[in-house]
Amino acid sequence: KTPVDEDGRYRVSHVSLSLGLSALKATAPGYDVPEWRWLNYPEGTTRAVEDFVLLREDELKAVQISGVVLDRNEMPMSHVLVQGRPMEIDMGRPPGNSQSAYSDESGQFVLEQLEQDRCYCIQAQMTSPPYLEKELFGVPVGTNDVVIHLTFEPVELSIQLDDSNPEQSLPDGTFFRICLIKEGDLNRPAIDKYVPKKPDAPLDSLIVKEPGNYQLCVRSSGFSAETFLRIDQNTPKQLPVVLSLAQMDKENGFCIVGRCVHADGTTVNEPYRVFCRLLDPPVRFLDETHPVEFPSGEYLFSIGLRMDGTYQIVYITRDGIVFYRTIVALSHTMAVLWPEQQARALRLPDVLYPGMKAK
Questions:
Q1: Are 243 and 333 in contact (CB under 8 A)?
Q2: Pairwise CA distance, residues 288 & 207, whole Å
Q3: What is the pTM of this model?
């Protein structure tokens, strides 16, 4: 410990000034901000000056921003990360340091040791699903009644096809498969449906009820389009998505085609699900995972694949019962042109559907 003189000056000897091996801490009775200062000077430095600013309780509130984090039901939210970043309103001032804190059990948070007479951008972020975020701009230092609501309202996606290229335009009435899959939820797509193309109208509208990262895929008759979307509480409540169709690669892309049959050999004509998941080689989120659901009337299912590999194929009834599972190596070289020379397809063996006895 080293005392200070009447002018507030101090002197400390025999300490390392480089590589952050030493730190100084300044405290004083009646002051509420003990401050640590790590020493990190260029090698060879033998003398340095470090100034400290200690604040009393009333002064402390003047350099704080505090408030509460609430959910849509006005209930407090704990363990939410709240960060404060100085805003660059005054270009003549240095950037300043950011501060952060977690909300407590009552949803309260306090950002301390901020710069006086400055405005901050306050960002609140959940550290667990659904990872809601919210930003408040221009919050002055000294504000102690900030209220942050972390809520999410459903977003409507209006899916439109770009028909400016006649070669990529398909006629009205063509059926499209639309698949919306959420990152981290690969077992079942958020939305999977078949819709016909209508004249002078969007292809379809989808309602997204949860925030997250999504992959949107649209396919029909050898053509496909896809895009990745980040949906959060800052996303407009009505979001148009314009997709440009491209012809599927006949050489590298291919489909697997199959059906389920009853014990008497008739084709199953009721809903069931088929999952096709790439096991090897491993790829990032969603690149080769194709969960699909088939409505009544779809005798043959078709799942598009974009690379060779070892896949797991799982058949599931509409009640969630797995009735067939297999692991098989699939390659585009095994596929043939099908149908009408538009895409390469590999026909899978028929699978026996449960529930009907052989005669």
A1: no
A2: 24
A3: 0.44
Res 357: pLDDT: 47
314 phi, psi to nearest 5 deg: -125, 130
The count of other CB atoms within 10 Å of the CB of residue 63 is 20
Nearest alpha-carbon partner for 155 in 239, 213, 216: 239
Locus of tokens 């999977």: 192
| Residue that is written with structure tokens 């309260």 in the block | 108
Q: Give me the pLDDT at residue 288, please.
A: 38
Angstrom distances, CA of residue 231 to CA of 129, 152, 202, 274, 286: 13, 10, 20, 27, 17
Strands 351-352 and 260-261: parallel
- Amino acid identity at 135: E
Structure tokens at 39: 């020493």
| Cα dihedral 146, 122, 75, 208 in deg (nearest 10) | 140
Nearest-angstrom CA–CA distance, 130 and 170? 38
DSSP of 194-245: EEE--TTS-SEEEEE-S-EEEEEEEEETTEEEEEEEEE-TTS-SEEEEEE--
Nearest in space to 60 (alpha carbons), one of 95, 111, 99, 26:
111
> What confidence score (pLDDT) does residue 293 get?
45
The predicted structure's pLDDT at residue 257: 81
What is the C-alpha separation between 145 and 65, in angstroms, rounded? 8
Mean pLDDT, the chain cut into blocks of 10 residues (359 residues total): 77 70 72 64 76 65 84 91 81 69 94 83 86 87 91 90 76 80 65 81 89 84 82 88 78 75 85 79 46 49 76 85 89 68 75 69
